[in-house]
């Protein structure tokens, strides 16, 4: 097309900041990309180098700086520093290098950053709430939310972080990282998201003895006092941000399910450790078998393992005519005592429902270990959430493969060193028959007897939980229902690359996370409307109109033009 290019319309935003206040606010800072006109209006002349860069030039410079860092933890630190300076540049860089940078901004590198949080601390990442200051909680909450109608709050009490356990106030790091993924993968405006840590102390002796530890230096709050503290926080969310999604993250096993059950009918709440699994649904789809025909062994029955079992049980129940008890009978759960069965008595945690507890008639009074369970059950699905490295031995894997055409093996424990089995070993021991997904990234592995490579899917909930949250936010659902979650999981399963090519991964590449989560979000939105829990007014009628509408509402890392106005945004 010839002729003079037409000047594109550039969105203008009125802001009430000038000078250093603009440069020090990551929401508004554009660094070297401020135009001549903006520099004049906002008193920025002389505060910046003369040249005016484009966003692409800034991304190129930032990527070069990123690559110069010699370790992943230094790269993580660089990205955290960038986020504290310029949100648009930070997300633009991540958007262009998503697959490469995801393991650095989240698992496994973020776990190391959180473990060293007190030593790496530079500036606040969100809202820090502690019991000794409970009387001022409302004022602190309102200050953090001032002028913002939030879409998302991510909160952690830091007790069960990414396979490394109790990290106390360092839990703000996981809340912040989770919010980043919501923006990157679901287009949630970072100005409408808030990271929170409920710093209720820590039982981590190393932190308590660390002179640089920046959290509450007391043992963890428990019992009624803990519940009152959490109740007050959730009450403030319901009172002042009633339309936002509240995401609970990395709460300990004694609290995670209990808090979810306590609040899920009061507000739109979510815990992806418990509710966010979609990968098993995808694997079952690839085998072309029915979900109700599976025999599922879960090795490791903490928050994650129990959450996966509950989610799959509910998917069976909602997709078939099975009762909850009938669905639960398809599961065999193991913990440090072996198979969870009635004779364990008070060794069985209160969080485990009776329907998951096996009866003595099947097993006798002796403890049943993983290999014994595999031999007796002949499972179709083996899931590891134990943090017990190499627990899926060659004997265990070969025994499973004897009885199943396509064994589904998911060693999900993070970080990589705690993985229950190396994918290359599982692939070799099953002669390439296994469908494998892991909790951390692994390279493709050789397929025995061929020159093909089998792509290892990273079973990270970031391919589903941002979409579940997006659909809930778009619909302004009063609650996130089980059927909404199942609808999202089914949509993810439909997008499995292995459905078209068995040598491809069970899940889409994280580089496609934005597209995938939009589709998941639309499925959740549709289900919310069907169930009558959506409260958003004037929702588009057709799916195509909804897709266009939802896509337009996504926040994108693009610069806009600023105009100074004392009544503008701050």
From TrEMBL:
Keyword check for Zinc, yes or no: no
List, alphabetically, the SUPFAM superfamilies matched: Aminoacid dehydrogenase-like, N-terminal domain, NAD(P)-binding Rossmann-fold domains
Source organism, top-level taxon: Eukaryota
What does the UniProt cofactor note say? Divalent metal cations. Prefers magnesium or manganese.
State if Membrane is listed as a keyword.
no
Residues holding a divalent metal cation: 249-250, 273
Q: What keywords are assigned to this protein?
A: Metal-binding, NAD
A Pfam match is malic
Q: Which cofactor does it need?
A: Mg(2+); Mn(2+)
According to the UniProt entry, the coiled-coil residues are none
Q: Which GO terms describe its biological process?
A: malate metabolic process
Tell me where in this chain the Malic enzyme NAD-binding domain is found.
274-529
Q: Give the residues the record marks as binding (S)-malate.
A: 414, 460
Active site per database record = 106 (proton donor), 178 (proton acceptor)
Q: Where is the Malic enzyme N-terminal domain?
A: 83-264
> What InterPro entries does this protein map onto?
Aminoacid_DH-like_N_sf, Malic_N_dom, Malic_N_dom_sf, Malic_NAD-bd, Malic_OxRdtase, NAD(P)-bd_dom_sf
Q: Which GO terms describe its molecular function?
A: malate dehydrogenase (decarboxylating) (NAD+) activity; metal ion binding; NAD binding
Cellular-component GO terms for this entry: cytosol; mitochondrion
Family (UniProt): Belongs to the malic enzymes family.
Protein name, UniProt field:
NAD-dependent malic enzyme, mitochondrial
